[in-house]
Amino acid sequence: MKSWIEVPTDSDFSLANVPFGVCSFPSSSTLSSTTLAPCTPRCCTAIGNHAIDLHLLAEAGLLDNLLMTTESDESRCSEIITNFHPRIVFSQPTLNEFMSCEKHVWVAVRNRLLSLFLDSSSSSSNNDIIQIAIHADNRLQQNSALQSQCMHPLSTTLYHLPASIGDYTDFYSSREHATNVGIMFRGRDNALQPNWLHLPVGYHGRSSSVYPSLASSATTAENDCERNLVGGEKMSTVRRPCGQLQVDPLDPAKGSIYGPCKLMDFELEVAFFVGGPTNTDYEQDHNQQQQQPRGRPLTLSEAQDRIFGYVLMNDWSARDIQKWEYVPLGPFTSKNFATTISTWVVTSMALEPFRCETSAGVQGGGGEPVPLEYLKDPNYGSYDVNLSVSIQPSSTSASTQICTSNLKNMYWSSAQQLVHHSVTGCPMNAGDLLASGTISGKEQHNFGSMLELSWKGSREVKLENGEVRKFLKDGDAVIMKGWCQREGSGRVGFGQCSARILPAIPFPYDSSKEKVVESTPKQPGERYTNFKLYGCWWSSCSWTVRIALAAKGIPSEYDTHIPININLDEKALTSDKHSSITLMQQQVPTVLEFMDGGNVVRISQSLAIIEFLETAFDHRGGRLLPLDPVARAKVKEIVEAINSVTQQLQNSSVMGMADSISGKEVLGNEFRKQAIMSGFSSVEKKSCHNSQH
């Protein structure tokens, strides 16, 4: 099988891969047919040297009518998937909405993309890598205009975290690594702790310090993710941490001092993103008389379908800080300062053809403990993923490969990790990140950390430029790679997981020496700028828009262009200043003004403004409107009911006309009261009906 899109032989992103990620593009990109500005992150895939904008494929209708195929001994049938909305899902700035779908949706989307990328001359093929019969869909191949819009060079693409990570857990599941560390600190006879062969050991990390490799400049101002050029590529950076260090390594009684970490280390890991609906049941809350969601344990078969895909991970470690703090509760600040992940998520479907035995072969052999029933995996195994780590000092553009390993060097599988994580009833949400722990092999060149490669600092690791390392130095770039490949087939790779180490910032931290960054910095190439809101104090619409601007983190100037010390009469809304801003005099006191390039744009009506802010700034802040189409429609239904039935009667100009027609203010007030009460009563009934359905 081959694609009509050129795929270099050494590309990580062959037709056998089809990973998912989140990207944005330079402001010079031409995206005239989309509501998303180029700098807005959106869901993408990759093939060859191109990132493909899934948002645009969805807008063009190429991801509609996805098929779910079911098979039985007697027949094979397909049906159209309902309740999946690709235009909404793939316009999001993260993959969370897509991840939260069930596995058959992931499979259907990937199959459709395979068919769109497949050369028509390769139609209806079935091989051991793709594993299914795919028929070419030439709608993208024959649409050069759409190609120019949705295909972007990887070299100019800006990368973002693929998901909003709710929770992050790091395991310790490579037996070879756990044995090496145990020998160093406890001796060969006590290398593994008594519980290690009984359960997947893990600890909770910090999702707030998980950073993307090759990150876009949108995140450069925060959390020490500045940009550097390394080997012609942009590379993220990580700041060497400071913390408490043991004064005498041999005598903890002498206490600690504060200072920069001296033993900074990488950890070669592979992590997976959880997908699918959260594992919850509902229990009756007798105090509140309603059902409350409660987490429930996952089975191994369920866990297999909850693994969305995998990324490479460098779980940076401060070994000397860790040595002092880890007793008795384990690592803390030594592991919470930075974790770097690759940005393309390789799906479990793409890795399935590379399933293999683990380095352990079986669990419970040779008289060792047999896993408890809930951890017994009938499909126990891993994936044959080649892994490597290279170091590139700041003094040279050349890098030195210092170790290789493989994902099959795992004792506890990903499914077992996920099952054990949920055994107590812990809810696992789409976007949660679970990491393998350091992956080491049996030989010295297969060790996945400097701690092991230098054997706790007792031996040197030589670099090609003549330098040596025991632990990492400032300016070192650590570059991790991972890929699967069989002879005669395309590569399934992860791209790079890379970052360069910056020097520590000493205590006390002087923020005045750092660049002052606005709380809501402008995105590179931001299309809409210089916001100004015209409104007045009595207008609920003005306050609604002010809240929306604040929620999206958009700085704006507020101009009460209608003086606040006048009565609610026509004078305010017929002023020359108001007339110059809006044509809808006497009815619309709220106008949002901003620059679109060199053009001044003004939008009135609060709902129209909110729709604009939601679409143009979906990468900022929270959502202003529900994502689900039905819920969004019901919200708008209520808003429109208020606008058409009650809001007009509260308008100052309408109030004045009612008084003049009746000839008496009291009659005008009574008319408005009855009409508004009737309108709100209808809205109230509609709201109650919606909440029950």
What does this protein look like?
- This protein is 25% helix and 24% strand.
- Helix 12 packs parallel to helix 15 and helix 16 packs antiparallel against helix 18.
- Strand 30 and strand 31 form a beta hairpin.
- The protein is built from 18 helices and 35 strands.
- It starts with 19 loop residues before the first strand and ends with a helix.
- About 8% of the residues have low confidence.
- The protein has 693 residues and is α+β, with helices and mostly antiparallel strands.
- The strands form 10 sheets. Strands 8, 9, 10, 16, 19, 21, 22 and 27 form an 8-stranded mixed sheet that branches. It has a 6-stranded mixed sheet with strand order 11-12-31-30-25-26, with no helix packed on it.
- It is globular.
- What is Rg? 29 Å
The helix-and-strand class reads alpha+beta
Give start-end ranges of low-pLDDT stretches: 215-233, 514-524, 560-574, 581-587
Provide a count of the helices: 18
User: How confident overall, as mean pLDDT?
Assistant: 83
Number of separate strands? 35
- The geometry reads as globular
**Portion in strands:** 15-25%
Largest sheet: 8 strands, mixed
How far do the termini sit from each other? 48 Å
Q: What level of helicity do the residues show?
A: 10-25%
